[in-house]
Batch of 2 targets.
Target 1
Amino acid sequence: MTVAGRALTGAIRGYQLVVSPLTGPRCKYHPTCSHFAVEAIQVHGAFVGTGLATWRVLRCNPWSNGGVDDVPAKGERLFRLTRNNAAMLNQSTSARLT
Amino acid sequence: MDTLLYPLEWVVANIVVIWHQIWTFIGLDPTAGITWALAIVGLVVTIRAALIPLFVKQIKASRAMQLIAPDLKKVQDKYKGKKDQASREAMSRETMELYSKHKTNPFASCLPMLIQAPIFFALFRVLNYNLGGDAGPIGLLSQDLIDQAANATFFGAHLNETFFNSEGMSAKIVSAVLIIAMVATTFLTQHQLTRKNLPASALEGPMAQQQKILMYALPFIFVITGPNFPVGVLIYWTTTNIWTFGQQFYVIRNNPTPGSEAERQHKERLAAKAARKAARRGEDPNAVVIEQAPAIEDESKRSGQRQQPKRKNRGGSKPQALPADDTKDES
């Protein structure tokens, strides 16, 4: 991982350790926005990863339905209006598992 | 940073000035500190009122939670006793999928919180640089008003004074009182959430332990950072906390998280209400009219739902009326 990637991941970890426990569980998605961001940066690098994470945080709003939304694998379509997992319960599209 | 936040600072300054004018119109002294303090309270009211649609949307989204309770139970039973990471992950996955499928979700999402952060920074900057520094007028906040606000004292404290950066004792005392109020309201909000609205499963394990530690450590963080905040910011923060507390109280009372202490109490209240209703109906059928609104709400919730017999609290006594009876009584 690049320096930028490491720095961002560290900041997100810090958020998960310090800020997140205070607000209680509040993310509508699985994995949560912060986990998604870490994974996105790991898979796609700091630049694209940050873009994916930002898009995810924006989609995590009171009008969305939430649900399972994995980081798209490399080569997959990156930005979708809805979730990146067409309700496939057992068939994980998680980039980590491929 | 300057240009990025400028539009927001402009909006914040305007809202404060408009509230200042409203208070002046009502009859408060425009040069008094309390008027400016109340203008900041007005800012909180405006922002939080503007965020109410988000809040209502979230409440509505969590309404159907009761209906999917049986399905949720199934998922929980399936992973009962499995503590390994893969099972936890799979369970969380299935739970979230279930929420999504039924278009319901108990979580608020972080957007309401994220939106407020820039507003807070904007206010901080307006108080620090426009009122306190020499950034000059912004929006409706003219130089005259800046001078007026800078000279106004709230219990002897200027709005842009901080605990560390102030002259005289009164500003320090006001600042200290507000810091204590800020810490207390933050803590109480946090306490209310963890003690009442988290399911038992979330109250054990390392995460919960950490949450507990942080809950008690947070006041100390504010005690360290608070003295650097201007009195105006402290007023804003404390008011926001009070609003958040009230809003959370309302949610916890009416839409508790399944499996939490608050839900148990909520069910008890509903059962007690049903019992009262039944008793009243037994004595005096006309009194039922008062219950009209809740009865209609129950009816709409009931429509087309097979799971209805699951709700224990409405079993019980015989006079437990069906919707048809309700309409008969009321007509």
Target 2
Amino acid sequence: MALNDILEDARLAGRAIADYGSGLVRPTLRLGVTGLSRSGKTIFITALIHALLHGTRLPVFEALTSGRIARVRLSPQPDAAVPRFEYEKHLRDLVDLRRWPESTRAISEIRVEIDYQTKRGAEKTLALDIVDYPGEWLLDLLLLDKTYEQWSAETIALSKLAPRAVLANQWHIHLKSLEPRASADEQHAIHAAKFFTEYLVACRDERFAMNLLPPGRFLMPGDLAGSPAVTFAPLDLPRGDEAPKGSLWAMMAERFESYRANVVRPFFREHFARLDRQIVLADVLAAINSGPEALSDLEQTLSAIAACFNTGRRTLLSSIFKPRADRILFAATKADHLHHLQHDRLENILSRMVARAAERSELAGAKTDAIAMAAIRATREAVVTRGKEKLPAIVGTPLAGERIGNETFDGTKETAVFPGELPELIEGEDREWKFKGLAASGPDETDFRFLKFRPPLLDAAAGGEPALPHIRLDRALQFLTGDRLE
Amino acid sequence: MTKPASFKPDDPRVAVASADEPLLTRAELRELEAAEALSLPAVIEPAQKRSRFWSKLFWSAAGGLVSLALGLAVANLVQSLFSYAPWLGWLALALTALAALALFVIAMRELFAIFRLEKIERLQKRAAEVLASDDREEGKAVVAGLLSVARTMPRLAKGRATMENYSRDIIDGADYVRLAERELLSPLDAEARKLVSSAAKRVSLVTAISPRAAVDMLFVLFNTLFLIRKLATLYGGRPGVLGMFRLMRHVISHLALTGGMAVGDSIVQQLLGHGLAAKLSARLGEGVLNGLLTARLGIAAIEVTRPLPFAALPRPTLSDLAGNLLPTKKD
């Protein structure tokens, strides 16, 4: 165990030294786009690259507005073994077909080079490395420091809480039939893994919108599907005991270990241990849609993930041996599903959710910020007058099959939607959420309804590439890269 | 709580929002502001409010007396002219009326000038508050105020158009104010720097070659007044005579407030510069010192007359503006 950890640290330091060396030759900024599945990582990256390449409206991004950025181009990425981020394909999906990119199934990478002039006049180039990966895999980070026994106990305890208990019913029944000390049987393991995975998948449904569902490869196996590394499940284990040799317990524990060693650690080493800047995307509105349970689940997940980051002020020593992210931006995505008057409340909700993680990073010397953002803005704003009320509404084209009240949309008609008014948070009040979401009540009774919209219809009449509308993408860029372009 | 709902876009109740129309009424905004004011970092103000009741009373009363005396003298004059010859009386009356009209117009102009200055001062204060609070609506209001000040400045046509172009985007208060500063004030700042540094150069030259102390004192005084007036005009203030008094007072109090604090930059340089220059010649040293003082005053004047505080753009420093006054190794 201890030897493993030392080896791992040595590997991390080795990587860091190599990076530091190449960073001297070519200044590089590794931007970590962190986010759970469906939080909009791919869209954020696509919109960011598009905005940089075409120099579209980014008023708050100082280097671009003041004209100091001379040229931006895509260039070959540093890691030859990782596929390239399919920027062009995603863009065509968004602009021509007006559909969101499919969920990411494998890791990919892209490098953007920015030629700019510093404020003092020197001409420089900054390489921006961005990695995209399935958000499900992020959950694996929670397993970094856990043993099989710990993980089993936690997972089973969690699955007995509402609203998970109902969804876990099948798996619980199967779990009772298993005897951990019985001799190892591959069929038992396969069945256990199957029921467990079904439970995880059910929790992820839009109605419940749970996120705290490790291990991530069970939800998005990538090239591991069917291999022993993902054929294990938690067992109801007696406390303070050791696994007998050759038992089911021992087999599961061994597979869990190999999952950690062969899947989790390399992922962490390659993509998280060496980031300069982090943006954490969270789909807060989806959680609000589902209800208070999903919201507190998201909060737990975010703080657990943020606890894995290396954050803090950069020093020469830290940048050589143990890189740290010195700026972290928490962003509530899909802010275009709300009228901008409510953005402050969304920001407040997010800030409260990540308060502990942000505080920890700031104590270590990193800068943090929380914003409501939409990398691509799919709606316009409108005011609806109903009786005496003036409702701040948004206008967009809901995806086919979306429902609000008793109306179902077909994906072609524009609709004005009033999604509900977010609760206002008052400093120092207790953190109980009290509202009705999809998980606990029927679709007609919820306090909020955030629909999914199609990507906006863009006006390409001016010839050439149309600009993608956004909300606060420029602020995010300024926070994440602005100081390196000064 | 209002339930979520959907509406057809051709429904007459749906109005696609225009950027200028605030959704909240004034009263609601004020409530919001009051609620937020509690949680904001306070903006520190110099404590200068002391009751000036008696001095104000004295000056108003004395002013009233003087105007009464003037009115009486004029009335007497007209009366006695009437007794000489009626046509003389009429002429005097007409002249009095003309003088009164002109006085009225001048007074109105002064009043407007003071209003303009006050508007700019208020704008600066509000902008500082927005930079701390990041309030979106207030930031929009500040930028709208700035645009109305900038309407008369032809060189800002492009910046104004850019800002109006951004008015529909969702940008937060502090970012919006910073953006406006970059777009609208950077040409003005460059011009202001030029004004201050050339004034400083002029002063140091005249002091160095002037035959009498009285001459350069007068010159420094006029040059300074002229500089402040030009700076205020540049930033949209256009002060009148009373406005100049007001501005002078503010600039000097600002200088007193900040002057002592600028240790790192100025004092060392001043002493060093003065010391070196004084070794060359006493007159030259005095010239450099006067130039430095003018530049200091110019910086204070920029900070007072500028409609926004320095946030996105660099604050001018003494070495920017008066660097060329100091003897360097090149010479």
